[in-house]
Amino acid sequence: MKQKIWPILLIAILLFIPLGFIQNQINYETVADNLQTNLVLMPGEAGDMVLAGFKGIAADLLWINVENYWHRGEHFKMIPLFYMVTLLQPHWILAWSLGGWHMAYNVPAGVKNIQGKYYWYQQGIQFLKKGVSYNSSRYDLYFETGWTYYNKGEDYSNAVKYLKQAVIYPGPDYVKDVLAHAYEKDGHINQAIKEWKKLLHTDFKGVAKRMIYDLNTRGWATP
């Protein structure tokens, strides 16, 4: 039993001691140009043991701290953990999704200046895009990126770009719903109608009928 425990303890030491150092170097009220670079540094790449098959254990240990910081409201301390967890487990959708949402929504809420709020919104977007690059054959992170552009940034052109990619892959019908809204907001009424028609045989049938009618009769629709 002791032989099995020692590798885990070693990973914890390799990860958490440098992590504390990184967090202490961050001025959380200041937008630093090289912040992302500093956060993704893995001390010694967490040692040969992580690369030899302990990545899952290391990611789980880090995720426990994500949850602890979340419950304590220490949101900024979660940021380096998201980078480290996704470095260890790049196909873990939840880590990318939660990290991107946290950076784009939660962190800006605690920043006072407009430039800082926009900076963190962009950090969330970039984090989600990086997640897409590792998970490009699934709808999830295309949708999360498109939704963040749509809902947080009101950037409907980029929202359409990512939501169009999301609907290529199997996923829930609400992805098509958001794409239809994004097309309308971006001024592509005919394309929005086409997307709504695809939802006429789904649970969104009632909404789709109303949207198609409104778009055909007055050129805009009420959600």
The N- and C-terminal alpha carbons lie at a distance of 59 Å
Count of runs of 4 or more consecutive helical residues: 11
Write the H/E string, N to C.
HHHHHHHHHHH
Helix content: over 70%
Tell me, briefly, the overall form: elongated
> If you compute it from the alpha carbons, what radius of gyration comes out, rounded to the nearest whole angstrom?
21 Å
On the 0 to 100 scale, the average pLDDT is 81
Strand content: under 5%
- Give the beta-strand count: 0
- Structural class of the secondary structure composition? mainly alpha
Question: Could you give a short account of the major beta sheet?
Answer: none
Low-confidence stretches: 4-50
Walkthrough of the structure:
The protein is mostly helical and 223 residues long. The chain has a domain at 1-135. The chain has eleven helices and no strands. The protein is elongated. 34% of the residues are buried.
Helix-strand blueprint:
Layout: H1 2-24, H2 35-39, H3 47-72, H4 79-88, H5 93-109, H6 114-134, H7 140-152, H8 156-166, H9 174-185, H10 189-197, H11 205-218
Short summary of the structure?
The protein is mostly helical and 223 residues long. The chain has 11 helices and no strands.
Index terms:
mainly alpha, single chain
